Model the fold of this input.
Amino acid sequence: MKYLHLIWAALFRRKGRTFLTLVSIITAFLLFGLLDAVRVGFDQAGKSANGAQRLQTGSKLSFIQLLPMSLQGRIGQIDGVKDVAFANWFGGAYQKPENQVFSFAVSPNYLDVYPEMEVSAEHRRAFAETKNGALVGEGLARKFGWKVGDQVPMQSTIFPDRNGSQNWPFKIVGLIHVADRKSGAWYDQMFLLNWKYFDDTTPWNQGQVGWYVTRVKDVNQADRVLKAIDEISANSDHETRTQTEAAAMSSWMKQVADINLIVTSIMGAVFFTLLLLAGNTMMQAVRERTGEIAVLKTLGFSGESVLSMVLAESVLLLLIGGAVGLLLASVIGPAVSAGSGGALNLPAAGAASWMTGIGLALLFGLAVGALPAVRAMRVNITDALAGRA
Amino acid sequence: MKFLKNFGLILLLVLVLVAWVLMPWQGALAAAVLLAAWMFLFRSGMQTRSVAAVGISTLTQRLGSSAVIVVGIAGVVGVLVALLAMAEGYAQTLRNSGSLDTAIVMRGASANEVSSSLSREDIVQIEQAPGVARNAKGEPILSAETVVAANLPIKGGNADESGSAQVRGISEAAFAVRPNAKIIEGRTFQPGLREIVVGKGAVRQFEGLKVGATLKLGNQPWTIVGIFASGDAMESELWADANVVNDAYKRGSGRNSATVKLENAAAIKAFSEALENNPQLKVKASTTLDFFAKQSEQMTKVLRIIGIVVGSIMAVGAVFGALNTMFAAVAARAREIATLRAIGFRGLPVVIAVMLETTLLALVGGLIGGGIAWLVFNGFEASTMAAGSVGKLSFNLAVSPQLLWEGIKWALAIGFVGGLFPAVRAASLPVTTALREA
Done:
């Protein structure tokens, strides 16, 4: 520790070079921070405490197959079940078909299963009492400039009403507030309508349900309940497949893309070049200081202490770059999310990303410094001072 | 004064980069030819040549630091090309699925096939519309199709893991409206039976899809009788007789969409107008090329943006790596450059020579990066939940010559930025101090 000022002085001996190297390191760790946050975001989907209590039941055949209404009562009788809600995909779009909105037709108790979505008692009452009422996420309302009380026409890309028109009028009766933005960012974009209104209006649904969401009393009972739910309709013509919310989400994400593989490959390429670059800088730094190192040794510094000083220098270089890069990622990620109006969700690099990042910086610092450090340790005083090395 | 110079330099940099981004390859070629001509025909050009020759011949002595530029740029180009190849492969697969002389008809306002529906009567009306091609027997060539999804076990996943596959119930004419699709193993299904043919892409993704195997769809057992290939999005699907599929999925007599063969590409106008003006129909027709292009548009755009953002961040890192190396190289050669200046070499040849050296390294890096991306990722199998479909789409990454050229362009741009400032420093160092200090 007492040599810190020496190491520091060595590191900034050539400010230009150190600065240029640092910028390269910073960009590498910035990219790492951003990509790792995306990866973690995908990984964590559905893994919240509330999510662990929820089971999703859909048709075993395919996700577009519907289930009979009667299951609600039967699932509700299973021991350990707290609430059973259900929903249908509505396929709503605002103004033009490309403006797709996450819109579900939901049962009256849907909000009970999703405590993440906070709706005031007054808004909830209005939703229950207004036939064509809709609850919208605050983020979605901001995006389209909606206010409570607005009449909004929605276009269903799937369901016509009884006259064959696909334009559905809604009245916005309340807003959904999401307190925990980290695990529930997408509830902020939600559009909920009354299932009853949906079922009454379209001739296509006829009392069927898209999927059930079951909330269990005790997370440890989830597995047993899950099996019991699927047993109800085993060997019927509407067999179900029940998964925990986390499992359902992760299998869905996996179908979209293998994020892990993509992130790992990109970071592999980035860090490989980084190692070379920082290694080259350290090599240069030690080479041009051969004389100084010889002086240090003459003053009585042992080979080992010279070795550890060079190692410390390279670790410090990587740590500074890594920390600044991760810090930038933590600032830029949320800024981009905010700027995109929720269309893009880049969470700030979390504790796990920071740990991995700092760990990598340490590791790379040691790897990069090893060769120059050994070279510095082996500097021969007489040769170096005579200018022969 | 110094401020003005730096400002001018940055302005020049921005202008050159903008021009470079917009430049087609012919322009780049012309610029290279002009540069070569200048180097061989003019006095200052010849000076540049000799300065550059010295720099390049000593590259081997600075292997480590030169490698920083080469590998740094190779990394950027490799990652960029691989990510863009994903976008390209995806777009190509969907583009290949469409053609100008076939049209797809769906209920108006439907964004995709699954959410559309056509009744028996609709289909009869569509068949009679003008512009529909007819076969030898005089029947309209139209395939009215049902699109549903099926959960199938994923290859290489846990026993419990399933993915979604798109199942298409087709009419007899389906192979006629999609000439790309050919049975490559086994035979096609017999109408009326629970037999199914599976696409090559689906075979790649899902477990147990073999000729002769049994598959459970809509709660009933189906026999796989053949495998088909089409080289486009269709081969990620499973095809069976539409009537049987409708039965199994309790769909009545309705269908999701109709694909028709048109007499020729020009017939689309008359065809779609006739459908729109028919008061009994609420449908919309578009060429399949249009339809699939629209489906791929959003996703391709997102993938391209991801590629360019990641590439840009990496490029910043590579630029600074190159700056570092070139500043060091120029510093090491300060005395030599000062000597040249002292014996009458002008500043410009020195600037150009240093830039040439960086550009050369960048070019090598770009070629290596592009080459690796091409070797590893061209044809690499990927899959995703495609927009507008209910099944996984399998596609191959495509490293096209355009993408490689795009990668080289990035490499040269990085080299240019990384070389410019060191080059200017080299030329503007006062001769006397350089000679004394170095």
About this structure: The CA atoms of residues 238 and 297 of chain A lie 81 Å apart. The radius of gyration of chain A is 30 Å. Chain A is about 55% helix and 15% strand.
